[in-house]
Amino acid sequence: MINRVEKLSLLSEMIAFAKSDKDIKNIEYNFLLGVSKQLDISREDFEYLIEHPVSYTHLRSHSERIVQFHRLVLLMNVDQEKTRSSSEVVKLYNFGLRMGLSHESITKVLYLMDSFPNKIVPPDVLIDIFKTQYN
After folding, report:
1. What is the DSSP letter of 116?
2. Rounded to whole angstroms, how far apart are CA atoms 17 and 85?
3. Known SUPFAM superfamilies for this protein (predicted)?
4. Residue 88 in contact with residue 78, Cβ under 8 Å?
């Protein structure tokens, strides 16, 4: 189980990712708010993180890092834009690397993402990709 500092770090990282194109869209905001509720982060703390990001805290659990990467993939595609900027994809790739995920798995997820409806990789597919690379 992750602690409060790690939860705030995860959420702060997601907010920074959403802000990479300058503004957080309403659909992204609502998605992030839902994640904050899932992480038991109050709305006040969530709002505070938007203006005051916290430092990155590395997650010890490999499975938690995979879950966080999946959240970032979902966040990137929640607005259902047809085309993604290369900088957005590179940023997601770099977030995955910083979390200690294998570059082969990240590359495979980003490649397969386009073949799924709404570019949303199902959790079981994502887990299988990382499991294959982890073994």
Report:
1. S
2. 13
3. TerB-like
4. no
CA dist 65 → 1, 21, 95, 117 (Å): 12, 23, 10, 24
Which 8-state DSSP code applies to residue 85? -
Rounded Cα distance, 52 and 68, in Å: 20
Say what the pTM is: 0.87
Torsions phi, psi for 61 (to 5 deg)? -80, 125
Length of the chain: 135
Which structural domain range is residue 47 located in?
4-132
Please tell me the distance from the alpha carbon of residue 7 to that of residue 76, in angstroms, as a whole number: 19
What is the number of domains present in the chain? 1
Per-residue pLDDT, averaged over 92-110, amounts to 92
Give the model's confidence band at 35: pLDDT under 50 very low, under 70 low, under 90 confident, else very high: very high
pLDDT confidence bin for 33, thresholds 50/70/90:
very high
User: If you search the block for the tokens 């199902």, which residue do you land on?
Assistant: 122
Q: Which residue is associated with the tokens 């073949």? A: 115
The identity of residue 44, as a single letter, is E
